[in-house]
Amino acid sequence: MIFELEKVRDRIWFLRIYVLLKEFLVLQSSQRSLELQLENQPDRRLDGVAELQFGDQSSVRHQSVISPSSVRHPVIQQRSRGMRIEFAPLHVPLRRRLQTAAVLQWIFSFLALAQCCMAAFILLLVSDWWTVSLLYAGWLWLDWDTPSSGGRRSQLVRSWTVWEHFRDYFPLKLIKTVDLDPTKNYIFGFHPHGVLVAGGFGNFCTEATGFSRLFPGLRPHLLMLPFWFRVPFFRDYIMCGGLVSSSKASLSHLISQPEGGNVAVIAVGGASEALDARPGSLTLQVRSRKGFIKLALKHGAQLVPVFSFGENELFDQMENPAGSSLRRLQNRLQSIMGVAVPLFHARGVFQYSFGLIPYRRPIHTVVGKPIPVVQNPSPSSEDINGLHQVYLENLTELFEHHKLTFGLDEDQHLTFT
């Protein structure tokens, strides 16, 4: 009798497995059919975000598109809600796979490439190839000041095809509002910082969004913490994109060149603003950031406010309100290491519920009009505060003028802290 009951129970389990497999195959079949239909419709995206036209700077249209992941069998949907894991469909177009791979390597370069480069240097040093590390150490000593002297950009690296896939993942777009004189030097104040400054990297460290075409004669340099330029091999890679040290000497070198044409891009909010980067946030830490204003006055560089709509929508963060234990720990780590440690998450490679891959959200980076600056080698506090107030007013005007175009509400405004 017991044996017969066990046989019946086994058959029930096999039946359950069969039903689940059948439901799964039905789901995949419906998703594949939808993908084939959408593939035959030009200029339509599969994940329901705003459509982007890269050729026309004045044309930004938004279309609502059905997502393949939204077509779900009711039983599978109920079980997924219980597990809270939404897996990616098996049949995904190759271009989307390439886009995800491009973003994955970018995430890796930000979070782990420096550590891998340091480990490679040490391993070479203790191996039979120790002469390679020794020779590189000599090169590092000779080249130590390059990150503070304009860097060493490579147009070849900036034009890699991988950056086009990176651009299309979000998608990412650079929008020019006025022409800029290539005989002058500029400081671009980039807002908001976001978690990983994706818009700053994609627009100013690559040619994927056409910076050189939009602003001929200008050379963008995104400023990065000096610490990263001390890491062997890694420093050479990031300099290829136009990244330079964020030290005072580095910024002064860029904006003091008499021939002009240099653009220093500064994420004004810095590492501390990254701790508040989450969807819907419009708080900018800028009221006490006046160092770049002082240097602009000393060297006569024009100030240009830049706002990147969608920058804060890419990642979620653990709740860390001011005064909480987590926020105190993050502030402590930042004071020790000089870099912020935001506990962020978004989606994964094969599922949409958790991971370190950013969400597919459109990023529109708008470059405002320049603020004329009269050179003053010894600016007073009144001069600095006055120009800083003008900068905040221009930044606010830029945001208010474009916010409705990019999906924000009329009652949403910037908050300066």
TrEMBL record:
Q: What Gene Ontology cellular-component terms does the record carry?
A: endoplasmic reticulum membrane
**Regions crossing the membrane:** 103-126
Q: Where does it live in the cell?
A: Endoplasmic reticulum membrane
Q: Which keywords does the record carry?
A: Acyltransferase, Endoplasmic reticulum, Lipid biosynthesis, Lipid metabolism, Membrane, Transferase, Transmembrane, Transmembrane helix
Is the keyword Endoplasmic reticulum assigned to this protein?
Answer: yes
Principal place where this protein is found? endoplasmic reticulum
Q: How does it sit in the membrane?
A: Multi-pass membrane protein
Q: Which domain of life is it from?
A: Eukaryota
Question: Which is one Pfam family of this protein?
Answer: DAGAT
Query: Which molecular function GO terms apply here?
Result: diacylglycerol O-acyltransferase activity
- The EC designation for this entry is 2.3.1.-
| A Gene Ontology BP annotation from the UniProt entry | triglyceride biosynthetic process
Q: What class of enzyme is it?
A: transferase
Q: Does the keyword Manganese belong to this entry? A: no
Q: Which protein family is named in the record?
A: Belongs to the diacylglycerol acyltransferase family.
Its name, as the record gives it, is Acyltransferase
**What is the organism field in this record?**
Oryzias melastigma
